[in-house]
């Protein structure tokens, strides 16, 4: 062997040795700190499982939660990177609410150049997130929701007319409820977000918008590769110039948003009150904002606090108190941030927000109603009780369910809460440690950059918190039982300042659809109804795979 080859062998061996030592150091990360942990190989199998779609994303986190039984939290790995799985409900509440400054973001700062739709609340980080959230909160105020309720009702009436036509001949119809519901939700969110009529109920085959928006929560090879690289090192995708977006989806949404903006700029009547119109208004107002900053801060505090009121009543009343304090904190922070001179509602933010609202308004809402309809078909007694409640409230209010009547429908609330317990649409919550965090009563300091994971699916299905978790039982949320729910175990809309900004709209949408179905039809299983709903592994969110066929019979 000549000197050159010997040198090469030595260099390669040293590099391999150093590489192995670095990997070993990472693999021993939790063991060295005396923290209970899930073996890196178990975590790797789970990660590869969802990257290659042999299991749904949430399943690997459920396995980690189970492996850490008996511990309030524990160490896990995302590829080689140490993460934390938080299990203890009290700690979950504490970290998500009071620990917010340490766990502010969901992931690394997005890159607008690589991902044109990244200016949305899910992805934004730091002060930019705070500023945009503050601007958007008033969009979901009670006054705005009242207006949106009329849009929802209009779509529900169209859906009813469609069902009436299908039932005309025999008084019943068999259909894929998932498809039916997603047509309705597309029409609703298209109207609320952009003021456009998508016509998905009338003409589903030609609704391009629905086909495109459905792809936003879907994994494809590009997104899987992006996530894999990002897990290895958050800077890697950026160095390689890789975007997580499907280019066709990005291009379509960019085009329709720009087109809608152009049309609205030409419309001088300004009568529409959709999200896009409001975003454009906020964008125009930015220059004059410092003058009315204070007033708007109050509106934000109200918006966020109001959102919490609708959450599960008494069980969350303590949370409301926390929420109010937190909302004020956000508002204060935001008031300070308003002095910021850079525009916040830029064209990229408008595009990102609209795209994210369209996707969140379609898939999570339609999945919730689909799961609910499936359960109702299997529980005729629940359906009947619901029907009677709706009828009573309708009679009391002169034949029509108005916006203010929704809060009188207590049993409907229980049914929706139980649906979201059994089928948490966002089965995992994630945060990034943005500032080193000393775990209370422990010597352990979580380093900046570590991911924090919460398995909502596991908490909602833990028999310690919800006995017989597979049973669909709306009584868990009855007035007498709801107080027994341990805070931090029921998180369908997340918690802390990053909880779902559109929770009230989502609940109103889901409830309006269920009212429409139950008021005029009875829901039944049929020979083609699946015995157990299989979950689609290709989505981030929880949604049924394939069709969910049910029989609808017109009530006499
Ligand atoms: C039943 C339907 C829905 C469910 C179950 C749901 C659930 C959630 C959950 C669990 C989160 C994460 C909260 C956290 O990390 O603490 C979230 C965030 C979010 N949701 Fe929803 N959501 C629904 C519908 C909607 C709709 C209709 C929209 C918009 C029109 C929407 C917009 C958002 C946004 C923008 C965020 C990010 C908030 C932030 O980081 O500041 N969601 N949602």
From TrEMBL:
InterPro entries: Cyt_P450, Cyt_P450_CS, Cyt_P450_E_grp-I, Cyt_P450_sf, Insect_CytP450_Detox
A Pfam family hit: p450
Cofactor(s) essential for the protein: heme
Keywords: Endoplasmic reticulum, Heme, Iron, Membrane, Metal-binding, Microsome, Monooxygenase, Oxidoreductase, Transmembrane, Transmembrane helix
UniProt-recorded Gene Ontology molecular function terms: heme binding; iron ion binding; monooxygenase activity; oxidoreductase activity, acting on paired donors, with incorporation or reduction of molecular oxygen
Gene Ontology cellular-component terms listed: endoplasmic reticulum membrane
TM regions (residue ranges): 6-23, 35-52
Localization in the cell: Endoplasmic reticulum membrane; Microsome membrane
Annotated membrane topology: Peripheral membrane protein
Signal peptide: none
Lineage top rank: taxon: Eukaryota
Gene3D superfamilies: Cytochrome P450
Keyword Transmembrane found: yes
Residues annotated as binding heme: 500
PANTHER family: CYTOCHROME P450, CYTOCHROME P450 308A1-RELATED
Family statement: Belongs to the cytochrome P450 family.
Descriptive protein name: Cytochrome P450
Natural source organism: Bemisia tabaci
């Amino acid at each position: 062997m000549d000197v050159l080859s010997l040198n090469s062998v030595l260099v390669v061996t040293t590099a391999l040795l150093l590489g192995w030592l670095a990997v070993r150091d990472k693999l021993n990360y939790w063991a060295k700190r005396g923290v209970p942990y899930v073996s890196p190989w178990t975590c790797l199998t789970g990660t590869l499982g969802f990257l290659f779609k042999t299991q749904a994303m949430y399943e690997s986190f459920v396995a980690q939660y189970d492996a850490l039984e008996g511990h309030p939290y524990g160490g896990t790995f995302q590829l080689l990177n140490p993460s934390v799985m938080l299990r203890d409900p009290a700690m979950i509440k504490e970290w998500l609410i009071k620990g917010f400054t340490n766990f502010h973001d969901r992931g690394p700062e997005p890159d607008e150049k690589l991902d044109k739709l990244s200016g949305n609340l899910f992805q934004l980080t730091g002060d930019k997130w705070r500023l945009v959230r503050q601007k958007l909160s008033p969009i979901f105020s009670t006054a705005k929701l009242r207006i949106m309720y009329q849009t929802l009702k209009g779509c529900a009436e169209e859906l009813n007319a469609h069902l009436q036509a299908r039932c005309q001949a025999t008084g019943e119809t068999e259909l894929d409820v998932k498809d039916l519901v997603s047509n309705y939700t597309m029409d609703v969110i298209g109207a609320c977000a952009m003021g456009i009529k998508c016509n998905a109920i009338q003409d589903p085959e030609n609704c391009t918008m629905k086909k495109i928006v459905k792809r936003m929560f879907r994994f494809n090879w590009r997104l899987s590769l992006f996530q894999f690289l990002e897990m290895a090192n958050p800077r890697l995708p950026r160095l390689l110039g890789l975007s997580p977006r499907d280019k066709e989806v990005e291009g379509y949404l960019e085009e329709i948003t720009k087109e809608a903006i152009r049309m609205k700029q030409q419309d001088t009547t300004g009568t529409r009150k959709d999200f896009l119109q409001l975003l454009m208004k906020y964008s125009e107002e930015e220059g004059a904002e410092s003058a009315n900053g204070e007033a708007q801060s109050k509106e934000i505090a109200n918006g966020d606090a109001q959102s919490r009121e609708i959450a599960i009543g008494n069980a969350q009343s303590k949370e409301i108190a926390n929420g109010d304090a937190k909302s004020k904190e956000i508002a204060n922070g935001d008031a300070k941030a308003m002095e910021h001179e850079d525009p916040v509602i830029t064209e990229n933010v408008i595009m990102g927000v609209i795209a994210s609202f369209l996707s969140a308004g379609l898939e999570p809402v339609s999945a919730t109603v689909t799961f609910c309809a499936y359960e109702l078909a299997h529980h005729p007694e629940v359906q009947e009780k619901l029907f009677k409640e709706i009828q009573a409230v309708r009679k009391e209010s002169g034949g029509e369910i108005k916006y203010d009547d929704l809060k009188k429908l207590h049993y409907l609330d229980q049914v929706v809460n139980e649906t979201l317990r059994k089928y948490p649409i966002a089965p995992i919550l994630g945060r990034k440690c943005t500032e080193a965090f000393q775990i209370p009563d422990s010597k352990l300091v979580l380093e900046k950059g570590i991911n924090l994971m919460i398995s909502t699916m596991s908490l909602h299905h833990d028999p310690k918190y919800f006995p017989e978790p597979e049973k669909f039982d709306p009584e868990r949320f009855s007035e007498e039982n709801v107080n027994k729910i341990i805070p931090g175990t029921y998180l369908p809309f997340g918690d802390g300042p990053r909880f779902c900004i559109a929770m009230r709209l989502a609940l109103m949408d889901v409830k309006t659809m269920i009212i429409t179905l139950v008021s005029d039809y009875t829901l039944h299983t049929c020979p083609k109804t699946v015995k157990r709903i299989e979950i689609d592994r290709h989505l981030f969110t929880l949604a049924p795979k394939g069709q969910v066929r049910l029989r609808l019979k017109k009530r006499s």
